[in-house]
Every structure is written in structure tokens, then in C-alpha cells.
Specification:
Shape: globular
Number of strands: 8
Strand content: 35-45%
Oligomer: single chain
Number of domains: 1
Helix content: 10-25%
Length: 134
Amino acid sequence: MKPTLNIVRAAGGVVLREVDGETQVVVVHRPRYNDWSLPKGKSEDGETDEETATREVEEETGWKAEIESTLPSFEYTDQKGRPKIVIWFLMRATVESGFTPDEEVDEVRWLSFDEADQLLTYSMDRDLLSGLEP
């Protein structure tokens, strides 16, 4: 009997805010991978997808955010060869709690959809945004 691989479960957010009538989306730089991505992270034991997304967004961006709706999820094989699913939510930034750069995320940027599309490393992230452009 073949051992079954545990599925890595994660959740994240496409976090929006309005500035001077323009919708902006937050992106994060992860120095370990030298990439730009949308904020997300692995679920902790007993945590719902919504709790994971809310926690990870605040940890990675320094912003509290409220979930507005569910977005398409992505399934793929991670860098360690494990199956992974990421549950995505459309979120609205509510309160800035303060960003502190660390080894996980060292920079946060609020960008227009076009700017984010140019900067994001992964096509999956860009695909999420393409369905949301105002």
C-alpha cells in the first residue's frame, strides 16, 4: 500500500483598499524565494480557512482585513513535492496594525492592478487579479 501524501492547506487574500478613488492591491516580497506574491500562508491546527487568511494577511502586511467573498482556490505541487491547496478570499483592508520586515516578508507594496500585474512573480496570482480589475 502506497503512503498517502498529506495535502498542505493554506489560505490568503487579495486585499484591496481605496486611495483617492483608485483601487489598490497589496503585494508582499518574500526574500527566501526572492518573489512578489499575494499574502498567504499555511493553516494552523484547528484553524478555518477564513481564520488562516485573516491571520496571514495581518502577519505579512501589517493590515487587518475583512473577508468580502471567496475566490477560486488553486491546487498545485509545492517545492517539496507535496500537494498543496490555497483557498483565496477577496478582502478589504480595514485597520493598519503596523508592518515589521522580517525573514518571511521584507517589503509590502500597495499597487494599482496594472502595477501588481507587472510585479507579481506567479501567473496564478496574476490570474486572480485579472478577474477582479475594476
